[in-house]
Design brief:
The complex is a heterodimer of chains A (502) and B (62). Chain A is α/β, with parallel strands linked by helices. In chain A, the strands form five sheets. In chain A, strands 16-15-17-14-18-19-20 form a seven-stranded parallel beta sheet, sandwiched between helices. In chain A, helix 1 packs antiparallel against helix 3 and helix 5 runs parallel beside helix 6. The longest helix of chain A has 16 residues. Chain B is an alpha+beta fold. Chain B has one domain. Chain B contains three helices and two strands, in the order H-E-H-E-H. A two-stranded parallel ribbon of chain B has the order 1-2. Classes of the chains: A alpha/beta (502), B alpha+beta (62). At the A-B interface, helix 1, helix 4, strand 4, helix 5 and strand 8 of A face helix 1, strand 1, helix 2 and helix 3 of B.
């Protein structure tokens, strides 16, 4: 079979990554096409396409060029796919897409015409994100930077600039925030209430806020700080500002702080600041051992535990009995557990729970004490994979937007007779895939009778666009076991393999 | 201390949020559906798509 690669470069033509993903999929589905990609020609994307053999010899691209790349079985097939792609690009926008009448070309123009604007939501490619954030801060705007792949040096200088100007710099790599009911980036439709959240972890914030909301309480605000804010280099700049902001917020009584274990120096300064607060705190450093806290704070190593403490020790999913569910299931596999997670913090929480139950665990996003996949030998260990990690998302959207990132690993796991359980998460809400349950059930529909048990948790609320109960129903109808929280899904996984070992 | 005297980041939680969105267009609809005023920037990489030059221009306030 001969392989033909064709490219078309559109100079100065920008589309966002979600629109590009949709078109890429359309083109990849054309007859005779082996592989296809539509990407902006940033240096990192050009490298991805070159490595995949998708760039023709001599094709030169720049960051503001749109590149259409097709690898096909014949020149005719490649040419036809390219033609279809260009037709889609030239299609006039629908009424809905064109509804926003005024589209300024810069942050400066937007603020000049609408001086009421007070926050910039930035999700451009990482190479350009720091520059846009600087423009926003220079104009007196708070920033939520969803973009990742921003250097630590840029993060530090942006946060220092923001602090000097009295502005909040949320991110980079800030997946979610809810300010005054405004869902910023990936956020759920949460009940308003009197619990505040400071989150260095996007899906951690989503899980805790959804568990609180579904339990009948609510959130005042959720401030995202970015995954690296509590590292030594950044020193918790935004976290400390968020503590101050909640201190003076009359709508907030209690605050939950969620992060991976911080650098000890940063933990000290954050806990010292919490100790001076008049408000009570729940501190959830996932994967940390119990730490010394000031009297107004309590510790939880898990997200579910943090939500329960914030709710005043109310139990979440109290009617769910993992051992009873496990005892009703037939034995399958040889006792292994594999977790395929869209949510990085859900993967971390799973590691905490499996390790605490005495399981030997390995992960590509290992918490302290867990073996790192690909670095140390992992034979005989449970594998917990964070599919949102850079190695899976370079050049493509996050699995919360594009659940197909999980498909290949899931198909392989379904045929792996070493496994008794596959653990999965579905993350709902604004920004997420419109129907992740539908996608998942199609992938698992033709699994064998002896395939491992599928256990899922659904991060979301009934008010989310996808509707939590409708998603749960679809999963259950497809034979998946759905737990009330990620933590309980993990407990069920442990119960099943312990039961099988008896 | 009155609200006006506080740093802006402390006032943010008490004020209505109005957003300028730069990047993923899907966020605009989510915010609009929740009654939040949002303006979407018709963004293209500046400096001809050269990230280093774009960062330099941003630092210079261009």
């Amino acid at each position: 079979m001969s392989v033909v690669v064709l490219n078309e470069v559109r100079k100065g033509f920008y589309l966002d990554s979600v629109a590009l993903m949709r078109l890429s999929r359309e083109v990849a589905g054309s007859p005779g096409v082996i592989e296809a990609a539509l990407m902006m020609g940033t240096p990192s994307n050009a490298a991805i396409m070159r490595n995949a053999g998708l760039l023709e010899e001599g094709t030169a691209v720049k960051g503001n060029d749109l590149v259409i790349a097709v690898k096909a079985e014949s020149e005719t097939a490649a040419r036809e796919a390219l033609d279809n792609a260009t037709k889609s690009l030239d299609k006039p926008k629908s009424q809905g897409e064109a509804q926003s009448a005024w589209r300024p070309h810069s942050i400066a123009a937007a603020v000049k015409n609408r001086p009421e604007i007070n926050l910039a939501l930035i999700s451009v490619p990482g190479e350009f994100a720091a520059g846009e954030a600087r423009k926003a801060l220079n104009r007196g705007l708070h920033v939520l930077m969803f973009s990742d792949n921003v250097s630590l040096e840029d993060e530090l200088s942006l946060k220092q600039q923001a602090r000097a100007a009295g502005l909040l710099m949320m991110g980079p790599d800030c997946g979610t925030a809810v300010i005054g009911g405004a869902p910023l980036a990936f956020a759920n439709k949460i009940r308003r209430g009197r619990i505040g959240i400071i989150g260095a972890s996007g899906t951690g914030t989503q899980e805790v806020s959804c568990l609180i909301s579904e339990a009948g309480a609510g959130i005042s605000h959720a401030i995202g700080v970015g995954g690296r804010d509590l590292k030594k280099d950044i020193g918790g700049i935004t976290t400390l500002m968020a503590i101050d902001a909640f201190e003076s917020d009359p709508e907030t009584d209690h605050v939950v702080l969620i992060s991976k274990p911080p650098h000890p120096d940063v933990a000290r300064s954050v806990l010292e600041r919490i100790g001076r607060s008049r408000k009570s705190y729940t501190v959830c450093f996932i994967g940390a051992s119990e730490i010394e806290l000031p009297p107004n704070a309590r510790f939880s190593p898990t997200l579910k535990g943090a939500a329960e403490l914030a709710l005043g020790d109310k139990k979440i999913g109290a009617g769910f009995d993992a051992n009873a569910v496990a005892s009703r299931l037939p034995r399958r596999g040889r006792g292994g557990i594999e977790g395929l997670f869209a949510g990085g913090t859900l993967c971390a929480e799973a590691q905490v729970i499996l390790a605490a139950a005495g399981r030997k665990v390995a992960s590509n996003a290992a918490i302290p004490g867990v073996v790192k996949l690909g670095v140390e030998p992992n034979a005989g260990r449970d594998r917990l994979i964070d599919l949102g990690d850079d190695e899976y998302t370079r050049g493509r959207p996050h699995p919360m937007i594009d659940p197909s990132v999980r498909d290949d690993a899931l198909r392989a796991a379904l045929k792996n007779r070493d496994l008794s359980v596959v653990l999965l998460d579905l993350v709902l809400g604004y920004g997420a895939h419109a129907d992740p349950a539908e996608h998942l059930t199609k992938i698992v529909a033709d699994r064998g009778q002896d395939a491992p048990a599928l256990i899922a948790s659904v991060v979301g609320t009934e008010q989310d666009p996808q509707g939590r109960s409708a998603q749960v129903r679809k999963l259950e109808q497809a034979g998946l076991l759905v737990a009330p929280s990620n933590a309980q899904a993990c407990e069920l996984a442990v119960a099943i393999v312990q039961n099988a070992g008896r | 201390m009155t609200d006006q005297d506080r740093p802006q980041y402390q006032q943010l939680l008490a004020r209505k949020v109005e957003v300028v969105n730069v990047g993923l267009e899907g966020f605009v609809k989510d915010l609009s559906d929740c009654g939040i005023d949002v303006v979407h920037v018709d963004w293209k990489p500046s400096a001809g798509g050269d990230p280093q030059m774009a960062a330099l221009l941003a630092k210079l306030g261009v």
